[in-house]
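Thread: "does anyone have the structure for this chain?"

Original post by V.I.:
We have the sequence but no experimental structure in hand. Need at least a predicted one for the grant figures.
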Amino acid sequence: MKNLATPFSLYLLLFFSSCTQPKKIKNQEISNLKTSHFVDIRDGKKYKTVLIGNQWWMAENLAFKTEGSVQVDGPDNRNYGRLYHWNEALLACPKGWALASDRDWTILETLISDNLNVFPGSTWRGKHGYLLKSLHNWKLDGNGIDKYGFNVHPAGHIIDDSPPEFGYTAGYWTSSGSVESGIAWVRFFAAPKNGVNRLESDINTTLLFCRCIKE
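Reply from O.Q.:
Generated one for you, tokens below.
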């Protein structure tokens, strides 16, 4: 798939659709998670960070303002980060951090999933999305347990200028894409799904969130 669908058709897709793998580490090796904070000196924003396996992730969506980004505020008036065009997302993370790649996401998913055979291809995989989703805000009984402090909130996405609809989805760019192809790999979470979707998205018509990973 090269493009994400319109909001309604995307919902139908989410509801009905069902390289060498990194070595899986044992559950007890990731039970003692390390957390910290990082302050972006560009705007003073303080981010929670979490170490999962050998990866330091920001445990919040990036909120650095760029010319084309869109701030998303939830019904609780809380800022849930900004949605970015892909070309801006590539450069938006602060110094020492980078937009997570497709491989970075695959490593994370492999670490926390019970099924190592679900990751190749472009589809919904596993049930590990439930472990990454936030405890609150997901509609359709879609809340997760946020086992690793990754804190995926359902702050939506934008396609073809449609406004983000809070409560149903969360979409994330990866750095794995190209201007020439016009597409990039993304990760999607949805209220009625416990897995994580790996698919390609049009970089010109879609705005998604950024998760930065420490370089």
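V.I.: this helps a lot. Residues 7-18+25-214 form one domain.
O.Q.: and Helices lie at 7-16, 27-31, 86-92, 102-112, 129-132.
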